[in-house]
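Q: My labmate handed me this sequence with no annotations at all. I'd like to see what the chain might look like in three dimensions before we decide whether it's worth expressing. Could you predict it?
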Amino acid sequence: MSAASEGLSEATVAAVERASGKLAAAAVAVMDEQFAWFGRMPADQRASVLLVAQNGVAGFTAWLRDPREALRLTTDTFRGAPRDLSRWISLRQTVEMVRVSLQIFEQLVPDLAADDAERAVLSEAVLRYGREVAFASAMSYASAAEARGAWDARLEALVVDGIVRGDAEESLLSRAAALGWDPAAEATVLVGNPPSDDPPTVLYEVRSRAARMSRPVLLGVQGSRLVVVLAGPTEDAVDHEALVKMSAAFGVGAVVAGPTVASIAEAHRSAADALSGLRAVVAWPTAPRPVRSADLLPERALAGDPEAEWQLIDRVARPLEDAGGALQETVEAYLATGGVLETCARQLFVHPNTVRYRLRKAAELTGRNAGDPRDALVLSVALAVGRLSRARGLW
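A: Here is what I predict for the chain of 395 residues:
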């Protein structure tokens, strides 16, 4: 006679064994009555729950005979369930089912005893076994969560790597969807230095800040750089604040944000511009943090980025040329004279107000004010890139 069944007759243990089906069915019936979500489960899932309950009762009987087998039996009960059972039923729902099952045990099992003394032994055994079942269920869900977390981390790394490399849209979308990313959400890629060499620390810094903004995020550490894909708009002043807050999750050094694109399928464009900006930002020591890749077009062009050269031509040089020679000539003269309005007007043989008017029209066309030192640099480089491109026959 074992310690658990000490004071129990073989007849009582056999009675518990025979009642296993009845006990399991009673527990499932109460679950169906108390929990609305249980009644909505498909038949195959309800059958799986019944199977787990029956195995639990059988494990209780075996445990009465040998309590040293308790942990193995209860663990095997959950291991023997369908592998995706934890996807159907949350941990909270599992706790509710365990509670109901134990209540049924406490009500019905003692009545199977031969006398009052054995009833007391059975009541205590139910409580002790219940602790084992609760522990086993918690371990089962913890193991499932750990495995899912490891898988999600690998999948997330593949998605971020695919964005950086410009993988095919179909594979990228399917992997991102598996991580719960909305395919229609706007996306912005930020790159910079990781805040730590410890991956969990990096993960916590990025995810905690994104969670406080209620923004989905994907991240990956690639060598010495941290790549973050942030969901949602970032263009207006309010939404731009999300970039500022997210940049705080990076380590020391520059943080570059690529353009915001319509969906994650186009995120490779944002990543390419952001990485180009990160390589070139060293040429602008006072760059803000974060700095947009579009604000680094001169440095990117000087570093040899053909995409930056094309954008400077398309956004600055071409609009000035298409507007007529007077605007481009005025901008070039103004820059050449160091931004001295009167000197520029004398050189062009026009009134200073004419220069002001032309510079204002140029600013409307290009979004760059020649009187601003930073914009003046952009205009100078854009015009130089345009002349070089035309000389090479590319424009």
